[in-house]
From TrEMBL:
<dbReference type="GO" id="GO:0047938">
    <property type="term" value="F:glucose-6-phosphate 1-epimerase activity"/>
</dbReference>
<dbReference type="InterPro" id="IPR014718">
    <property type="entry name" value="GH-type_carb-bd"/>
</dbReference>
<protein>
    <recommendedName>
        <fullName>Putative glucose-6-phosphate 1-epimerase</fullName>
        <ecNumber>5.1.3.15</ecNumber>
    </recommendedName>
</protein>
<dbReference type="GO" id="GO:0030246">
    <property type="term" value="F:carbohydrate binding"/>
</dbReference>
<comment type="similarity">
    <text>Belongs to the glucose-6-phosphate 1-epimerase family.</text>
</comment>
<dbReference type="InterPro" id="IPR011013">
    <property type="entry name" value="Gal_mutarotase_sf_dom"/>
</dbReference>
<keyword id="KW-0413">Isomerase</keyword>
<dbReference type="InterPro" id="IPR008183">
    <property type="entry name" value="Aldose_1/G6P_1-epimerase"/>
</dbReference>
<feature type="active site">
    <location>
        <position position="155"/>
    </location>
</feature>
<dbReference type="InterPro" id="IPR025532">
    <property type="entry name" value="G6P_1-epimerase"/>
</dbReference>
<feature type="active site">
    <location>
        <position position="257"/>
    </location>
</feature>
<dbReference type="GO" id="GO:0005737">
    <property type="term" value="C:cytoplasm"/>
</dbReference>
<dbReference type="Pfam" id="PF01263">
    <property type="entry name" value="Aldose_epim"/>
</dbReference>
<dbReference type="GO" id="GO:0005975">
    <property type="term" value="P:carbohydrate metabolic process"/>
</dbReference>
Length: 284
């Protein structure tokens, strides 16, 4: 059996549908350059996509793996989460290697981005879909003559059966910034993170894998060159305030985001940077 790759539409927006030879599935939106759906072979979906997500080619799509660049959240003067999650990306190439499907999407600076952020850039997002893993690598190239700085994230929405029962391992002893407590700096003493309130934390200097235990199924979360991890859930009041999320869906998602926030990335002219997040099913 061969892998299949097709360009289709989802709620009027162009997407790439993938089914690998081993039976894994993925949907990648060209609008926003984000993975909307990923289901490993023989398993259940691991990405959350809101049933009320808006596909109007203007606002961001709630769920999947939005790309935040060149600003994460409101950490700067630009629109929240930057300039590329509400623009149309292009498919650069696609290929199948040893039963895995690799897609590379791209987007560049243009007159609209230059009007609010006066730097030239080129982004590539490479998505690799295997039978039991999803790898996403963001590459940033400074194509201008001036040095630039940016923050970035892969804003990954993970689907869980019940967020209060989920356990995120691997953050013990790490320092974090708590944005639910006015940006206080803290250290996590717990062997696992369990969610029973709103959470908006940025963990710093993350060097080891994390494991999300979702009611007996496990997902290993690795990252390279991204030094921060954002953990976010809006909880009941926060979800109710979001027009594009069902009120109770805070129970069905947990964002675990590979990020570069605390220390902005500096790029000289013609320089490149890359960061990767890998999701691996069944690891402990």
């Amino acid at each position: 059996m061969k892998s299949t790759i097709s360009t289709e539409t989802l709620h009027g927006q162009p997407v790439i549908q993938v089914r690998t030879a081993e039976g894994a599935e993925a949907t990648v939106s060209l609008f926003g350059g984000q993975v909307l759906h990923w289901q490993p072979a023989g398993g259940r979906p691991w990405l959350y996509l809101s049933d009320q997500a808006v596909f109007d080619a203007r606002g961001a799509i709630r769920g999947g793996t939005p790309v935040c660049f060149p600003q994460f959240a409101a950490h700067g003067p630009l629109p929240r989460h930057g300039l590329v999650r509400t623009r149309l990306w292009r498919l650069i190439h696609q290929r199948e290697v040893d039963g895995q499907v690799m897609l590379t999407l791209g987007i560049d600076s243009d007159d609209t981005s230059l009007s609010v952020w006066p730097y030239l850039f080129s982004l590539e997002l490479t998505v690799n879909i295997g039978g039991n893993r999803l790898d996403m690598e963001l590459e940033v190239t400074n194509t201008g003559a001036d040095a630039l700085e940016f923050t970035a994230a892969l804003h990954t929405y993970l689907r869980v059966s019940e967020v209060e029962l989920a356990e995120l391992h691997g953050l013990k002893g790490l320092h974090y910034t708590d944005h639910c407590d006015g940006g206080a700096r803290k250290t996590d003493p717990m062997p696992m993170l369990q969610i029973d309130d709103p959470i908006d934390r940025i963990y710093h200097d993350v060097r080891r894998p994390m494991v999300l235990d979702d009611g007996g199924r496990a997902l290993q979360i690795d990252q390279e060159n991204f030094t921060d991890v954002v953990v976010w859930n809006p909880w009941e009041a926060g979800a109710a305030a979001l027009a594009d999320m069902p009120d109770k869906d805070f129970r069905r998602m947990l964002c675990v985001e590979a990020a570069a926030v605390k220390t902005p990335i500096a790029l000289n002219a013609d320089a490149q940077w890359w960061g990767r997040q890998s999701l691996l099913v069944g690891a402990n």
